[in-house]
Automatic annotation (TrEMBL):
Pfam families: AP_endonuc_2. SUPFAM superfamilies: Xylose isomerase-like. This is Xylose isomerase-like TIM barrel domain-containing protein. Residues 25-260 form the Xylose isomerase-like TIM barrel domain. InterPro entries: IolE/XylAMocC-like, Xyl_isomerase-like_sf, Xyl_isomerase-like_TIM-brl.
Length: 266
């Protein structure tokens, strides 16, 4: 089982792509990096090449995109533009190929992009249409898509694994799954039993120490085991990425990599 590192929450206003964290993450012992698709979406090929070279020089492969939907892009509902969504799919998969990514995690439709009188059931058909196009195109690139439930305070139509599974089952493609982000899962008070029942459709995990959404250190490992061990026992064998803030990256990143490695199934 691979452990990885999400760079999004290590970014700063002066370093929006978390370039400075890449060598630290590589030395810390993570197997792969997870990069924000939205933040590299508009980069030129030269800028992308420069960014990719940082990972190549550090020996840290980029295997996963997260934060995949550019701000303001409507995925469903009356404001969704099919042509704009097709262009988005083209660009996302081009970037996946460029960076060597085999998995894209993304939130569901954002309520702020949908008129307030539209319900989940109103927009569900158009969302499924988008997902079918995206998953079919992604399959041509060998890319899996993963729907990330985001707690409802952040305006997501998909805030639970159960709701994500409604979309996964409606699309019915082998390269579409859902996932658990421990921060959102705990904040939403989502149902662990639903996760276990659908473990074959769980394609990815994000983990952070809940109190401050920080890198899990020694004092956090009981909580870490409590959440992750039932998933391992149920048969989860996918990736686990740390998506968290770090007070001291030089210390926190390697310590979390070591501690996580101690509890992952061998």
């Amino acid at each position: 089982m691979k452990s990885g590192i999400c760079l999004l929450l290590l970014a700063t206003n002066h370093d929006p792509l978390a370039r400075a964290a890449i060598p630290t993450a590589a030395k810390a012992g993570y197997d792969y990096a997870e990069v924000s698709l939205a933040r590299i979406y508009s980069l030129s090929d030269n800028q992308l090449s420069d960014y990719r070279s940082l990972f190549l020089q550090s020996g840290l492969p980029v295997e996963v995109f997260n934060n995949a939907v550019p701000k303001g892009l409507a995925l469903a509902g009356p404001g969704a533009d099919p042509q704009a969504l097709s262009r988005y799919i083209d660009r996302a998969l081009y970037l996946a190929g460029f960076m060597g990514v085999s998995m894209i995690t993304m939130s569901g439709p954002n309520r702020l992009t949908v008129p307030s009188d539209q319900t989940w059931m109103d927009i569900f058909p158009s969302y499924i249409q988008f997902l079918k196009e995206y998953t079919d195109r992604a399959a041509e690139y060998g890319v899996s898509l993963v729907i990330e439930p985001i707690n409802e305070e952040e305006h997501s139509f998909i805030s639970t694994v159960s709701t994500a599974m409604d979309a996964v089952m409606a699309v019915n493609r082998p390269n579409l799954m859902t996932m658990i982000d421990s921060y959102h899962f705990t904040k939403q008070k989502d149902d662990p039993d639903t996760v276990i029942r659908n473990i074959s459709h769980i394609g990815h995990i994000h983990y952070a120490a809940q109190a401050r959404r920080s890198y899990p250190l020694e004092s956090d490992m009981d909580d870490c085991r409590q959440l992750l061990t039932p998933l391992f026992d149920a048969g989860y064998k996918g990736r686990i990425s740390i998506e968290a803030y770090a007070d001291n990256p030089e210390q926190d990143l390697p310590q979390s990599a070591r501690l996580l490695g101690e509890i992952l199934p061998k």
